[in-house]
Design brief:
- By secondary structure, this protein is of the alpha+beta class.
- The chain has a single domain (2-160), classed as Jelly Rolls (Sandwich), CATH 2.60.120.10.
- It has 5 helices and 9 strands, in the order βααββββββαββαα.
């Protein structure tokens, strides 16, 4: 079960403040920024969003673990990625409107922060240093995943030959 809180996160963990996802943003702005995001908690095995669903939020793991999976044509569930404490996922939703490419499921009790596309755009337009840092971090993650996909395709092609 996913529970959103009316309150922001009470105390931002030190490791999240120091996370590389906010590199380049002044330390004094990081806590203020993270406290401005919507806080939620989820039990283990909670589906945060499903493949093919519309969603407009980026998620930051405060504590816990999330698995991102995708269904193959044969119905098999394939793990694409994992997000642990001090990491983010769902970043494409704030960059480009589309349906979700994967299903995000908690692997244990997990605390999260969410940032909507609308919030993100306002922060980018205002040149908010933390939003710009998140954008750089998200870009690096997307590039890393593209390289992984390229490697998988190359390996599959080699095996097929």
């Amino acid at each position: 079960m996913l529970r959103f809180s009316a309150d922001s996160i009470e105390c931002v963990p030190e490791a999240l403040l120091a996370s590389s996802m906010l590199d380049g943003a002044p330390l004094e702005l990081r806590e203020q920024f993270l406290k401005s995001l919507r806080f939620c908690s989820a039990e283990a095995d909670t589906v945060l969003y499903g493949e093919g669903e519309p969603d407009d939020s980026l998620w930051i793991v405060v504590q816990g673990k999330v698995t991102l999976t995708r269904q193959t044509a044969s119905g098999e569930s394939v793990e694409l990625d994992r997000a642990d404490a001090n990491d983010l996922f769902g970043e494409l939703a704030v960059i480009s409107p589309a349906t979700r490419a994967a299903t995000a499921t908690t692997r244990e009790p997990t605390d999260l922060l969410t940032l909507t596309r609308e919030q993100f755009r306002r922060l980018i337009d205002a040149r908010e240093p933390c939003a710009e840092a998140l954008l750089r971090y998200a870009t690096r993650r997307i590039c890393r995943r593209l390289r992984q996909v390229d490697e998988r395709i190359e390996l599959a092609h080699e095996v097929a030959e």
